[in-house]
Amino acid sequence: MIPLYNEEGNVAELYRELKEVLNREKFSHEILLVNDGSSDRTTQLISDLHGNDPCVTVINFRRNFGQTAAMSAGFDYAQGKVIITMDGDLQNDPADIPLLLAKIAEGYDVVTGWRFARKDPFLNRKLPSMIANKVISTITGVHLHDYGCTLKAFKLKITQNIKLYGEMHRFIPAIASGMGAAIAEVKVNHRARKYGTSKYGISRTVRVILDLVTVKFLLSYANRPLHVFGLIGMISSSTGAFLLVLLAIQRQLYRIPMGDRPMLMMAVLLIFIGVQFVTIGLISEIQVRTYHESQNKPIYYVKNILQRT
Ligand code: UDP
Ligand code: MG
After folding, report:
1. Per-residue model confidence as pLDDT tens digits over 58-88
2. Measured between alpha carbons, how far is 147 from 69 in angstroms, rounded to an integer?
3. What value does the mean pLDDT take over residues 292-302?
4. How many A from CA of 88 to the centre of ligand 2?
5. Mean pLDDT of 179-201
6. Which of 17, 80, 125, 239 could pair with 94 in a Cys bridge, judged by C-beta atoms 3.0 to 4.6 Å apart?
7. What is the DSSP track for 118-148?
8. What per-residue string of b and e applies to 118-138 under the rule 16 or more CB within 10 Å gives b?
9. Which residue has its alpha carbon closest to ligand 1 atom 17?
10. Which atom of ligand 1 is nearest to the CA of 2?
């Protein structure tokens, strides 16, 4: 499954390389091309591919919805037992596909590529990415060298249970691991972009960080929001209460006036903030229940059940 946004220079070569590998290895396959509202010749080129090869399925978006949406559509429409995602700009090498599938055959649910010799500019790509990978690994607890690599393989049962928003596609391994999936990483080839331009700049970093906050929250507290909001609220309120008591003691025992002291303001503010946090936590608890119960979403994932039949 490949997201495509204005990749006219790459489509033909991509198809040729893919076919070569897939035919050589005799994989039964479907090539799912998601056209994310391209305004160049990509649309025409892939519809020709579909005309000549029934293995090619094309999904045309009405406008540009972004890579995450494109991949989400791919997951929704893919029919294979294993889904392989890759970039449409030839930076990933289709020759690595058998490597990924071999790992899947070993029993892993998700296999992700590691671009160990990445061919991208250092300062605005590799450096931010190195830092991001460390941060994401530490915070999510799922340690991978390369979260940004699109070349990945998934078992269908994993992708069926994942819904993507924002720029979440890079966090799929972390989300999958939250479901209990077994994850492996393999070194893959990486090539410089020959045709077309990258669709992203350095500004992506900020969005990735914000999405990380969401993912961490969903992974750790999605089913118990009060535990995080309530804790913050209680710390805030009790600090405020403590300061108030301090002020009152000083006022009563030492006759220090408290009306003109900034600490009074601080104490009252902390108590208010605390109450608000606890309230947000309680509202979130209601939302969580609505979310799970209205959609019949369980809060667990069963691997298998052994029982007498
Ligand atoms: N892409 C997409 N929609 C977008 C932006 C990108 O479908 O809005 C596709 C793009 O065509 C490519 C893949 O996502 O196949 C990765 O994009 P790009 O190569 O620009 O990202 P980079 O490799 O620079 O991180
Ligand atoms: Mg690229």
Report:
1. 999 999 999 999 999 999 999 999 999 999 9
2. 18
3. 88
4. 8
5. 93
6. 17
7. --S-IIIIIHHHHHHHHHHHHHHS---S-SS
8. bebeeeebeebbeebbeebee
9. 199
10. 15
Report pLDDT digits (tens) over 243-257: 999 999 999 999 999
The neighbouring-strand residues paired with 83 are: 154
- Nearest alpha-carbon partner for 170 in 195, 199, 207, 138: 207
* Residue 127 to residue 123: CA distance in whole angstroms: 6
Residue 186 CA, ligand 2 centroid: distance in Å: 19
Given a cut of 90, whether residue 204 has pLDDT beyond it is: no
Distance of CA 131 to the CA centre of its chain: 17
Q: Which two tokens stand for residue 131?
A: 């830092």
Determine the atom of ligand 1 nearest the C-alpha atom of 3. 7
Residues, Cβ < 5 Å to ion ligand 2: 87, 89, 91
Residues in CB range of 37: below 8 A, 6 or more apart: 5, 61, 62, 63, 64, 65
Cβ of 165: how many Cβ atoms within 10 Å? 11
Distance CA 159, CA 75 (A): 6
Give dist(CA 202, CA 279) in Å, integer.
Answer: 37
Cβ contacts of 240 within 8 Å, gap of 6 or more:
266, 267, 268, 269, 270, 271, 272, 273, 274
Hey, what are 284's tokens?
């979130």
* Whether pLDDT at 235 is above 90: yes
pLDDT digits 0-9 by tens, 129-144: 999 999 999 999 999 9
Which ligand number lies closest to the CA of residue 34?
1
